[in-house]
Design brief:
By secondary structure, the chain is mostly helical. It is built from 19 helices and no strands.
Length: 406
Amino acid sequence: MQNDSLRRFEPWLVFITLAYFACRLFSNALSIAPFLPPDEVTRFGICEVFSRVLFLPENSENTWHLGLVTDIPALYYFLCGKLMHLNFFPISDLFFLRLCNALLSVCMVYLAYRWICTITQDVCVRLLFLVMLTNTAMLTFIGAAVSYDNLTNFFAVATLYAFHCYKLNDSLRYFLLFLVSVLAGSLVKTSFLPLAVLFTFLAVWEWRVAPVRLRALLEGLRSMKAWNIILCSIALLLLFMNLGLYGGNLLSYGKVVPVSSQVLPLDAAMKNRIFARGMIASEFRAGRMDLAEASERIKAIDNPGDRAAAIRLVKIAAKEKQRGVQLMDRIQYSWFWLRGMTKGLVGIVAHRDLFKPAIVLGLYQLLFLAGILSVVRYWNLHDTNGLNGQAMLLCGAYLLILMQFV
């Protein structure tokens, strides 16, 4: 009865939660300095480059400090560059794009809510999910910044929601939305590619387990309605763009996304602070650069945060050489990585970090542990038509890929 009573107020509670989240995003967009969110200055700079051309820009002396603007997943920069032309308001382009990203984050959270509604009919669980998501510190912080992570998150959630709706309804439209989301996400950020592979595996597995589903899909493709034809056309366009980008990079550079020094002369690539930071540390660690040369090159990095990070990396490498320090093994690193991710998830990781106190972080860890134990105790493989199992498989496999390979 209590759940039924709460169900009547659920739409209002969802609206209030989303409005609260939007207000927090607006406050962050208005008040956070542009040099604080991770690489926002660089992301905004690339968006400006894309705003000045009709389609795709070229690398030039004016773009070297931003890194590559070609041979990269550029859908986010392309869309933001075009959105900048719609800023008819008396606000800066940076603030305008922050507001666009905030709106995108709200849409992502709403899609996440729609997804949890396919998983459970328990209103308390759905509302708790929504409250926890909108009060995740790092999501609220990055959601109001100019960051391609926001579009990546949106397409990740859209892909999951569309795929599970297709699994439940065998709807051609949801399958095409799934295709559009997974292909578009792959054009935003390379870290989406493992997720795209996992979703492809799940789709093939669904057809292997239920061949009738694949036959129904093929029959639906023969007699598509107008909206489905549009979605299919978009999916084909995105597929060709993925093949052109990643296939072309593999043929030209041997990598899905090349490093700057493969496309630009080394001196030009070193103009980018992120590439320079990593390059100096790796060259020193490999013994191809001595400490004096590394220190001199670090001075040329104009960003204080990246300059400090490069100094820290070189110092660590120097200690490794002096003391013979060995890198931790993968199991040790797993624990280190999980702790770091937990701190970053409930805190803020940016050019200035803000973490929870140790005792508060411990409470979060206990909460996560309780959740894992509850899954072990109560999870049924056949609950919700296997949607829970697929979600956990996706999360577990993706976390393992990020942890051990990225």
